[in-house]
Specification:
The chain is of the alpha/beta class. The protein has a single domain, classed as Rossmann fold (3-Layer(aba) Sandwich), CATH 3.40.50. It is built from four helices and nine strands, in the order αβαβαβββαββββ. The chain has a six-stranded mixed beta sheet with strand order 4-3-2-5-6-7, with helices on both faces. A three-stranded antiparallel beta sheet has the order 1-9-8, covered by helices on one side. β5, α4 and β6 form a beta-alpha-beta unit. It binds guanosine-5'-monophosphate.
Length: about 180
């Protein structure tokens, strides 16, 4: 079986419906990387990934940015094993190093209600970075509760619960190479 083919994965996961195929995802991530490389040519950024969902996106994105970037992670509490936001946001893991006067690009998996991003941006802004922007792979406009300024967005998607490419349901499906809707 050739698992570089999305359909082969679906045989193992029949409960899924592909929303963004892996080729489309990869092409868009490369585009975002090119754009970021142009915009930050004079100021290579620190990429701040939000664990755990942004890990796969961050790993691919940074390899499409031909600049001397660094990366670090924060972890913020989110859904747990449920599919609805609890509205509770808390920093579980902080950055390893200071960001004062650094150019910071937050890399997020999905802008859903925006509670996570707006909380995180508030925390990071207090540390007075040279600049602070956001790159999100996905955005669900119908679900936004808080307006967040997004510099780079991969795809806008409908109000469906999605998994894959880092996004989970009860810690499953993060390793799928595509974004899928979970049926049932
Ligand atoms: P927020 O509602 O604060 O914008 O998003 C919080 C977090 O919830 C996201 O970073 C993401 O980890 C998770 N989340 C939001 N929507 C989805 C979704 O459709 N699928 C999955 N797997 N996680 C989601």
């Amino acid at each position: 079986m050739n698992y570089s083919n999305d359909d082969a994965w679906l045989k193992r996961f029949p409960e899924l419906e592909i929303l963004i195929p892996s080729e489309t995802l990869q092409a868009r991530v490369r585009e975002l990387g090119c754009q970021i490389a142009q915009d930050y040519a004079a100021n290579p950024p620190l990429l701040v990934g939000v664990l755990k969902g942004s890990l796969v996106f961050l790993a691919d994105l940074m390899r499409s940015i031909p600049l001397p970037v660094s990366y670090d992670f924060v972890a913020i509490s989110s859904y747990g094993a449920e599919t609805q936001s609890t509205g509770q946001v808390r920093l579980i893991k902080d950055l390893d190093s200071p960001i004062h006067k650094r150019h910071v690009l937050v890399v997020e998996d999905i802008y859903d209600t925006g509670l996570t991003l707006s909380y995180l941006l508030g925390q990071l802004r207090q540390r007075e970075p040279a600049s602070l922007k956001v790159c999100t792979l996905l955005s669900k406009p119908e679900r936004h509760q808080v307006e967040v300024d997004i510099a780079y967005c991969g795809f806008t998607i409908p109000d469906r619960f999605v998994v894959g490419y880092g996004l989970d349901y009860a810690e499953r499906y993060r390793n799928l190479p595509f974004i899928a809707v979970l049926n049932g």
